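Hi there,

I know you've been waiting on this one. I reran it after we fixed the sequence typo, so this is the corrected version. Both the input and the resulting structure follow.
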Amino acid sequence: MLPTVQMEARVVEDAELRFAPSGVAVAKFRAVASSRKKITENGQEKWVDDKTCWISVTCFKKLAENVAESCTKGTLVNVTGRLQTDEWEDKETKQKRTAMSLVADTVSISLAFRSVSGEQKAERTSAPAQDDPWATPAGGGDEPPF
């Protein structure tokens, strides 16, 4: 079983949507998960960039389609998923290469710096799912179903 992780990251390039031969939607984007600051090594009170953690995120099916529409460069996202190690051979050097990537189970846009647009709100509320506990009760009303 792959480890499940949760991270907050900033998307560094627009999500790219493709379709597998089977027709399954696949979206990929790169994000920077950490760009910490540290005090310079000589002890001066000057903050400099520390190591940056880059991560590739892959999404499938409806999540992939939604990510491709919503995740553009600069978007702050929260991602939950499974870490995996990708392996390949470098075409130029023929050396074996590896990198960590994240297969997303969920991706949500952080509301720390932006809000959901009115169009997205209307789309989300116009057709509630049958099993949606937050859907408006059949008899109408404004009360949540609890």
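Quick highlight: Residues 11 and 31 are 4 Å apart (CA to CA).

Best,
R. S.
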